[in-house]
Design goal:
The structure is a single chain. The longest helix has 28 residues. The protein is mostly helical. The protein has one domain. It has four helices and no strands.
């Protein structure tokens, strides 16, 4: 049973590390703030959760398990808020490519225009 647990732990930690690596490469390679923000939040959080699950599996029965669980919960709760705030600041400072937007709802809000849409 110990061998199976070690294999599961290794797979979780390695897959989380690969996701974190791809997130880091995306942050460096993507051209604009919104793309970088996507790379910094989505795969980074999933990679961290996988690494924490691997550590959780390895440290079964240890008192530090609850600290690992708290790190995971706080990461999942704060990452969307941080991404939203960074996106708003990038939009206000005009550091986004306008071609990415199909609908620019923030521009309508800035002008005071409110459209009632019936989709």
């Amino acid at each position: 049973m110990n061998l199976v647990s070690d294999i599961v732990t290794s797979v979780l930690i390695l897959s989380g590390a690969v996701l974190a690596l791809t997130a880091a490469i995306g942050v460096v390679r993507f051209p604009d703030t919104l793309s970088r923000m996507h790379a910094a939040t989505k795969p980074q959080v999933v990679g961290l959760i996988l690494i924490l699950l691997g550590a959780f599996n390895h440290l079964r029965g240890n008192v530090d398990i609850w600290m690992i669980a708290l790190v995971g919960v706080f990461t999942v709760l704060t990452a969307p808020i941080i991404a939203h705030t960074v996106g708003q600041v990038a939009y206000r400072e005009q550091r986004v490519r306008k071609g990415l937007f199909m609908v620019d709802e923030l521009r309508a809000d800035e002008k005071g225009e409110h459209e009632d849409r019936t989709d």
